[in-house]
Amino acid sequence: MPNDITGTIQIKNGKYFAVLNLRHPDGSRKQKWITTGLEIRNNKRAAEKRLREIIAEYEERNQLFDSDMLFWKLMEEWLESIRLKVRDSTYHNYKLVAEAHIIPYFKDLNIKAKDLLPRDLEKYYAEMLKTLSPVTVQKHHANIHSALEYGRKNRIVPTNVAKDVQLKKASRKQKGSFYTTEQIKTLLEAAQGDPIEVPIMLIAQFGMRRSEALGLKWSDIDFANHLLTIHATVVYVGTETTFVEGTKSEASERTLPIAPSVEAYLKSVRQKQLYWKEVYGSAYHDDGYICTRDDGTVIKPNLVTGRFKKIIEKCGLPAIRLHDLRHSAATNLLAQGFSIKDVSEFLGHADITTTLNIYGHVLQEHKFAMADALSVTLSRSA
């Protein structure tokens, strides 16, 4: 949009006013009266100079129109603008955060988007930190930053004030709990015959995310070449279970080899599904999923998480999260000497740094083993 702010000098109540002609994003024009502080007598030239200065100030600030949009309304407009640009699950998460926290807070304050200050955001984050984790508040900040950037590009706000807010960086280093290979064997035995037996096996065997295991279809299995491809997910979008053609990141789309024992297991699962398809007949939901109920419907994400807790309680295993089965696969692979790069690719991490941050403790244990090995070698040569 060109910087075509125009203006004239007008007289009101015995003083000169600069009257700016500002452009709205919809193409319409709006006038804004700004006092020059100059009396009429002998000040026409000074008023004209002041008009030019005011126009330059507005152009420098890139504020091509005067918006009265409230900040919470800007959040709503931003959400609508990204609706078709991001995955449904991502949009739902953004919308949930905005409607549960950001919009109600700023709606009560009634702050215009253009009047928002860094300290307003700092107060909001401080309030959120009373009940939410630093990592979660960082996500709030990212959404607010994106909304204000949308507002800046569309001339709703003169600048993105979120850039002037610095949050204390939340530690991204994690150390998830994990099961040993023996505990994994115990879990798989305990899960036999349970409705979530198949997703548990896939998560434990391949280190998949829950959504990846549930999104797996028979068309993703290449039995001839003994390969499995992960390229889709099943997630909750609102209250609906939805198949999403795509994964968390480009790196998450990966092809993994299938061991003979796992291949035999998957073939047995397929035979069971064909049996139930005959039993249910036309009532069977033949959508091609691997993780299904007897009637062919895909298993819901929350069912996997809920029943997993019951299974480990029943067989006396230590309490861990379902996602820790993914940690278990990675930790056990690293402990067996596989490289951090290979494990990162196996898990589908977008960056090897992510793998290092989560599993650095395993590598640290390797360093102690290496130090001991060198010590023994040097002692023998001494």
List keywords for this structure.
8 strands; 3 domains; 13 helices; alpha+beta; DNA polymerase, domain 1; single chain; about 375 residues; hpI Integrase, Chain A; about 10% strand; 3-stranded antiparallel beta sheet
Question: What do these coordinates show?
Answer:
- By secondary structure, the protein is of the alpha+beta class.
- The protein folds into three domains: 6-60; 71-164, DNA polymerase, domain 1 (Orthogonal Bundle); 181-365, Orthogonal Bundle (hpI Integrase, Chain A).
- It is built from 13 helices and eight strands.
- It has helices at residues 44-60, 71-82, 88-109, 118-128, 134-153, 181-191, 197-206, 210-215, 260-280, 301-315, 324-335, 340-347, 352-381, and strands at residues 6-12, 15-23, 29-39, 221-222, 227-230, 233-237, 240-244, 254-257.
- The strands form three sheets. A three-stranded antiparallel β-sheet has the order 1-2-3, with helices on one face.
- The longest helix has 30 residues, at 352-381.
Strand-pairing-aware structural class: alpha+beta
Task: State the separation between the terminal residues, measured CA to CA.
Answer: 77 Å
Major β-sheet annotation: 3 strands, antiparallel
**Helix percentage range:** 40-55%
Top-tier CATH class of the largest domain: Mainly Alpha
List the secondary-structure elements in sequence, H or E: EEEHHHHHHHHEEEEEHHHHH
Number of domains: 3
The CATH superfamily of the largest domain is identified as Intergrase catalytic core
Number of strands: 8
Low-confidence stretches: none
CATH fold field value of the largest domain? hpI Integrase, Chain A
Output mean pLDDT. 85
Proportion of strand residues: 5-15%
Overall morphology: elongated
Strand order of the largest sheet: 1-2-3
Number of helices: 13
Gross CATH architecture of the largest domain: Orthogonal Bundle
Radius of gyration: 30 Å
